[in-house]
TrEMBL record:
Membrane topology: Multi-pass membrane protein
SUPFAM superfamilies xrefs: Multidrug resistance efflux transporter EmrE
GO MF annotation terms: transmembrane transporter activity
Residues in EamA domain copies: 23-160, 195-334
GO annotations of cellular component type: membrane
Protein name, as recorded: WAT1-related protein
Keyword field: Membrane, Transmembrane, Transmembrane helix
Species whose genome carries this gene: Sesamum indicum
Keyword Lipoprotein: no
Assigned protein family: Belongs to the drug/metabolite transporter (DMT) superfamily. Plant drug/metabolite exporter (P-DME) (TC 2.A.7.4) family.
Length: 397
């Protein structure tokens, strides 16, 4: 028979693992999206149209769930709330994804994922600007965040300015010999490569802004995250249609059949828009925007493996070196974030002590045990009161 303490420990462990499992699962979803989308874009599909179909499908998938599960006590859509949703739709579906797809078309899936690793550093910088993160440069944890951000940006600049020689892979080299110089990944000029880098940086900046604003919007939709996701996808669809009409004047670009284009739109809409927005919101609600951006290096590794096999993707030395530098800077930022959360946890534990005990001069709290995490409770030492006096002689009779 399982003890209640074991059940509590197991449930607590699973609860703590949920954010990690959710973000790791999303990286696999993003990796598949990068490969499928690259094939579709190479086949001639307009990325403007892809964004429209992606979010139309995402809206159609997630809106029914929002209606059935969250139709009660819906937050009122005031003008400030509407503007938040409007800007979220503009940042994510329109700016981020259009620029990302354009950069992906000019570079490669692995390179695009590597540039996306700038996301935590840019999110940290914007969180400082909007006072969602604090910086005390005298402390090591904040020094690690700042240095990590600088290293990450430096790695991105290296990848942008230095392409370098081709790094041959055994399996991809064998595949290239059979493709006969076809449209494999990476066959772009240096000028197109540079433009693709700039587009990816702009997309990542828009993505970081999305995280910051989504954190603020979740205060209103804390219990209606499906509704927020469906509203953002719907607003993004409307805006993307307007952008497509302006940028694409040929009506034939809207045609889509039972092919890779439909698969790319459906996969991106279901997995990386509706599901990812919802899971991303759940994680940010508990862990914050910086944590939600911490797992992008995993996507880069998955895409590099899949891309080399499926697309015979070409990998260049500048991308490899820059990726390593970015990952080092990324985890410097994450280490500082982890230490900061640990300190905040200690402060919360101390705040749970009743005020009457805090103000008492006869109380001594062993904070060292909390910092070392050797105990799960706070030890309080209280002196015993004076011993009872002996009974008088007439009481003993």
């Amino acid at each position: 028979m399982i003890k209640s303490s074991d059940q509590t420990c197991c449930s607590s462990f699973l609860k703590n693992c949920k954010p990690y499992m959710g973000m790791i699962s999303l990286q696999f979803g993003y990796a598949g999206m990068n490969i499928i989308t690259k094939i579709s874009l190479n086949g001639g599909m307009s990325h403007y149209v892809l964004v429209v179909y992606r979010h139309a499908i995402a809206t159609a998938v997630i809106a029914p769930f929002a209606f059935f599960f969250e139709r009660k006590a819906q937050p009122k859509i005031t003008f400030p709330v509407f503007m938040q949703i409007f800007v979220l739709g503009l940042l994510g579906p329109v700016i981020d994804q259009n620029f990302y797809y354009a950069g992906l078309k000019l570079t490669s899936p692995t390179f695009s994922c590597a540039m996306s690793n700038m996301l935590p550093a840019l999110t940290f910088v914007m969180a400082i600007i909007f006072r969602m993160e604090k910086v005390d440069i005298k402390k090591v944890i904040y020094q690690a965040k700042v240095v990590g951000t600088i290293i990450t940006v430096g790695g991105a600049m290296l990848m942008t300015l230095y392409k370098g020689p081709l790094v041959e892979m055994v399996w991809s080299k064998h595949r290239q010999s059979h493709t006969g110089g076809g449209s494999s990944a990476g066959e772009t000029s240096d000028r197109d490569w540079f433009i693709g880098c700039i587009l990816l940086i702009i997309a990542t900046l828009a993505w970081a802004s999305l995280f910051i604003l989504q954190k603020a919007a979740l205060k209103t939709y804390s219990n209606h995250q499906l509704s927020l996701t469906s509203l953002v996808c719907f607003m993004g669809t409307i805006q993307a249609i307007a952008v497509t009409f302006v940028m694409e004047h040929n009506t034939s670009v809207w045609r889509i059949g039972w092919d890779m284009n439909l698969l790319a739109a459906a996969y991106a809409g279901i997995v990386t828009s509706s599901i990812s927005y919802y899971v991303q919101g759940l994680v940010m609600k508990t862990k914050g925007p910086v944590f939600a951006t911490a797992f992008s290096p995993l996507m880069m590794i998955i895409v590099a493996i899949m891309g080399s096999f499926i697309l015979a993707e070409k990998i260049y030395l500048g991308g490899v070196i820059g990726s390593v530098i970015i990952v080092v800077g990324l985890y410097s930022v994450l280490w500082g974030k982890y230490r900061e959360e640990k300190e905040e946890k200690i402060k919360r534990q101390l705040q749970e002590i009743p005020e009457a005990i805090k103000d008492s001069n006869i109380t001594q709290v062993t904070v060292e045990n909390i910092e070392a995490e050797k105990c799960t409770s706070i030890a309080i030492h209280m002196p015993l009161s004076n011993p009872p006096t002996k009974a008088t002689d007439h009481q003993q009779v």
